[in-house]
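Field notebook, page 211. I keep forgetting to write these up properly, so this time I am using the form the group agreed on. The chain and the ligand, S-adenosylmethionine, are recorded exactly as supplied. Prediction of the bound pose follows.
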Amino acid sequence: MSTAGQHPDTGHGHGHGAHPDHDEVFDREFWENKYRTSDPAALRHEPNPYLLVVAETLTPGRVLDAGCGPGAEAVWLARRGWEVTALDISSVALDHARAIAEQEGPDVAGRITWQQADLTAWTAPADGYDLVCTNYVHALEDIVPRLAAAVRPGGTLLVVDHFDILAVLDPAEWRPIPLEARSRVVAAFDGTEKVLDDRVMAAVRIAPTTP
Ligand SMILES: C[S@@+](CC[C@H](N)C(=O)[O-])C[C@H]1O[C@@H](n2cnc3c(N)ncnc32)[C@H](O)[C@@H]1O
């Protein structure tokens, strides 16, 4: 699998949007500025390999890509027939992502709904998703419960980063999916290479049994 062009800004710390090593805050302004000052070509990357593993086991339905960034995963999912809601705090990221999707043609672009929202203050819609995925988004302790609420019974939640989703999910309601995470080399915006040691967790929301 090629890792060239994978998203570089991965593996940052959590803690309510603040990096543990310094005081930079990963708020909307940070992300708007990051995408505004990035080379659009460098934003193109391969879709996340763990999403591919999970999604390939599922029948395409409705999916939420939470913190979609430049949209590689949203486009891949739409190509596979998923109806995608691609959400990000950054409208600049969404503009980049929409432009990439439109190059795929109306079938793919037409299956993606772009939504600007802050996941830390986001409320799950009542009609849930078959798959909710999030890759490398901060403040997961605030966000994962909201994402979990957006998964319909029988649907799947996938979180790629260093966060123990099982700590915030009710074990009576969720069945973990065993996934193997491997170290992988990714290309950063500045052209350097970086080794990622992902932690990947997924779980299926157990559908209530009818008596
Ligand atoms: C490291 S990038 C990852 C982007 C994409 N998921 C990927 O793997 O290429 C993190 C993304 O999360 C978005 N993000 C960060 N905090 C967010 C929040 N509170 N609500 C929605 N999106 C957020 C950023 O704008 C950025 O696009």
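OBSERVATIONS:
- The two ends are 46 Å apart (CA to CA).
- The first helix runs from residue 28 to 36.
FOLLOW-UP: compare against the apo run.
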